[in-house]
Design a protein that fits this description.
Elements: E1 73-76, E2 86-88, E3 102-104, E4 107-109, E5 117-123, E6 126-133, E7 148-152, E8 156-160, E9 195-202, E10 205-207, E11 210-213, E12 216-221, E13 224-231, E14 251-255, E15 263-271, H1 287-305, H2 310-321, H3 327-345, H4 349-353, H5 356-371, H6 380-391
Antiparallel strand pairs: 1-15, 2-5, 3-4, 4-15, 5-14, 6-9, 6-15, 7-8, 7-14, 9-12, 10-11, 12-13
Helix pairs in contact: 1-2, 2-3, 2-5, 3-6, 5-6
């Protein structure tokens, strides 16, 4: 971690147009590399949105489900009331009805031959938490033992299977992306004990019929990494090789009835923010998207500058130039910078010393603009200010 430089200012103006002292520091303008063609934010950008606050939950044990984080959307919490969030998964053309699965001892239990179930709620990219337990009484082997499945958007399956001392084909193992990729390990507890899946899911994205992101799945089982951003080769499936296809915008979470009374508990999810290719503003953006976001940020800064005056206004407008180099704004910055330098030149003695912090703050801003070519290297206000600071010995303040 690199600490931000401290700018001392004795001027009555808010030199860097920063938040009030009681507000936490979110960074400093004219500091890190500026926005560019595919990044709408500067490095260490004070205008970049802050992460939202989420109160963490608690971890589960085999005996007791943990508490979800504060922003989780609960799909099953162990109560009969939460069963209302689920419905039967009918065949195409048929209407959904109430699920025949039951709630028993705080768990959602599959009733064999009653059919798949699905959430009424539909969602896409998410962090998904699911806990499941195979029957304590061991029956069957391979795919016939404690079999179920977790289907993201009703399509991409993370296999549920009792593989405790029970081998099967690798791409059908517990925590496999079924039919596509085996898990990296077998971290299952004994039959009857609850297993914990934590899944990060990103759906495939198509544009104009062309795949631009294959989607991916990251899976932890009982805290052990099983799938490391595994690319999705379509939805997966049985017997036939899956091929890339477009997924819908949203879909339900489905749980499979494979003829075994598998139990589920503590099911919740957190929606994930949009990726850059879908309009998100973090990561590498298209030039068009980055330009639009930079212009939006510049407009906010210029509106804010309209509430300020003098040096504070000049600094805010100068900051906006790093997002969007507008000719009218650049002319206003030059006018205000020249006025600032003229005002500093007119001062002497104690009055001049009182403005040293302001002079150094403006110098820092103008040097930044020149360094990244937002203003010419021979920018007149910058040259005049550098000369003034040198003549008064203020440039020795950093030594």
């Amino acid at each position: 971690m690199k600490l931000l430089p401290v700018v001392t200012a004795t001027c009555s103006l808010a030199l860097l147009a920063a938040p009030a002292r009681s507000a936490p520091s979110t960074g400093s303008p004219f500091y890190g590399d500026p926005p560019d063609a595919t990044h709408p934010w500067a490095v260490h950008d004070q205008n970049r949105p802050q992460p939202k606050r989420v109160e963490p939950g608690t971890f589960s044990t085999p005996e007791q489900p943990g508490k979800p984080p504060s922003d989780a959307i609960i799909l099953f919490d162990g109560t009969a009331a939460s069963l209302a969030r689920w419905e039967s998964d009918p065949k195409p053309g048929e209407a959904a009805g109430p699920t025949k699965w039951i709630v028993k001892d705080g768990a959602l239990e599959c009733v064999p031959k009653s059919g798949y179930i699905r959430t009424k709620e539909q969602f896409a990219d998410c962090q998904l938490h699911v806990e499941w337990a195979a029957p304590t009484a061991v029956q069957g082997d391979s795919q016939g033992r404690g079999n179920s499945g977790v289907f993201l958007m009703g399509l991409a399956e993370v296999q549920v299977l009792d593989n405790y001392n029970n081998p099967t084909y690798a791409d059908g193992f517990a925590a496999s992306v079924y039919g596509i990729n085996p898990p990296m390990a077998n971290a299952l507890r004994r039959p009857g004990e609850f297993q914990v899946y934590d899944i990060v899911f990103r759906r495939p994205v198509f544009r104009d019929g062309k795949q631009i992101d294959p989607g991916r799945m990251t899976v932890f089982c009982n805290g052990v990494l099983m799938q490391d951003a595994t690319p999705l080769e379509g939805p997966g499936g049985h017997l036939r090789r899956s091929l890339p296809v477009a997924f819908p915008e949203k879909g339900p979470l489905k749980l499979q009835d494979h003829g075994n009374p598998v139990r589920f508990r503590n099911i919740w999810y957190r929606p994930l923010p949009s990726r850059a290719i879908e309009g998100g503003t973090d990561g590498v953006l298209t030039a068009e998207a980055a330009t639009a976001k930079r212009k939006e940020t510049a407009a906010i800064l210029r509106t804010d500058a309209g509430k300020l005056s003098g040096t504070a206004q000049m600094l805010r407008l100068a900051e906006s130039l790093t997002y969007d180099k507008d000719a009218a704004t650049a002319a206003k910055v030059e006018q205000l910078a020249a006025a600032c330098v003229a005002g500093l030149k007119a001062l002497s003695g104690a009055a001049a010393e009182a403005k040293k912090g302001e002079a150094l703050a403006v110098q820092r801003a103008l040097n930044y603009l020149a360094r990244f070519q937002f203003v010419p290297a021979d920018y007149a206000p910058r040259a005049a200010l550098n000369q003034l600071i040198k003549a008064r010995g203020w440039d020795d303040a950093k030594k």
